[in-house]
Design a protein that fits this description.
The chain has a six-stranded antiparallel β-barrel with strand order 1-2-5-4-3-12. A six-stranded antiparallel β-barrel has the order 6-7-8-11-10-9. About 35% of the residues lie in helices and about 30% in strands. The N and C termini lie far apart (about 125 Å). It is elongated. With about 270 residues, the chain is an alpha+beta fold.
Length: about 270
């Protein structure tokens, strides 16, 4: 108790002395270093508090802006995906309309009875290379019927059920069609064969026949299965097979089998 009392007395005496000292300095118009020290400490504390408050407000403002930016980014991503989907749908519709227009122009020039059909599935993978159309035997479609698109020859019906048919593409193995190469100098005739790849092999062209990349290849119409002058593809690369004394070439099909949506198939035989 005595120690505490003495402590308070000492503190009171110091406070009284500081007060007297302060009054004397003020009366004589002199600066009080202790007051200045206290003021500087208080000002420093005020600046620190203000700076901390401003930094905290700036942090939360930045965080709010970042959240708004993220929400806006997510909205833009969703909108972009939607627009891309709509664009793809519009392109698909435009491509189908173009195919329909080409088929309408082609149909009057085809011999026999042809009917429109829709491609419901496509299997372009090696070893399969078939597609399915929505017409079958009840529509008059039989195995062996040729199938064409507006861009050119697709292939032949391999199997026909009542309401659908399996079509074997030109690129499938063991597929062959008589072909004519429309070279500017001289047309020549050979056979386009499927090899289970994306390209067709043009075979049995006479070695002296003019043949070059860019030449168009159409159906020759030999044998009566396929109508003549249907586009088959375009020559990509030519070489001479000296062993058999024939020219051969790789031909890129005119038809994009993976994008087919509509076609024509021949009824009956």
């Amino acid at each position: 108790m005595k120690r505490r009392r003495w402590t308070w007395l000492i503190l009171a005496a110091l406070g009284l002395m500081l007060g007297i000292y302060h009054n004397q300095r003020v009366r004589h118009g002199e600066a009080n270093p202790i007051t200045a020290l206290i003021r500087s400490i208080v000002l420093s504390l005020q600046r620190g508090v203000y700076s901390a408050t401003a930094t905290t407000e700036q942090f939360f403002t930045t965080l709010t802006h970042a959240r708004e930016a993220l929400r806006e980014h997510d909205s833009l991503v969703i909108e972009n995906a939607r627009l891309k989907q709509e664009l793809e749908q519009m392109r698909a519709v435009a491509a189908e309309n173009e195919s329909l227009r080409q088929l309408l122009n082609l149909r009057p020039r085809l011999p026999g009875n042809w009917m429109g059909c829709r491609v419901v599935a496509t299997y372009p993978q090696p070893g399969q290379q078939t597609l399915i159309i929505d017409k079958g035997t009840r529509d008059g479609v039989l195995a062996g019927a040729p199938v064409i698109a507006g861009e050119g020859l697709i292939g032949v019906v391999e199997r026909a059920d009542s309401g659908a048919s399996v079509v074997r593409m030109l690129t499938a193995p063991r597929m062959a069609v008589s072909a004519r190469v429309l070279n500017p100098q001289k047309a020549s005739t050979g056979v386009c064969e499927g090899r289970g790849e994306s390209m067709l092999l043009l075979n049995f062209i006479p070695p002296e026949a003019p043949l070059q990349a860019g030449d168009k290849v159409v159906s020759a119409g030999l044998g009566g299965k396929y109508p003549p002058n249907l586009p088959i593809g375009v020559v990509e690369r030519v070489w001479l097979d000296r062993q058999y004394s024939v020219k051969r070439a790789w031909v890129r099909p005119a038809v994009d089998f993976e994008r087919l949506s509509v076609a024509l198939v021949k009824r009956g035989r």
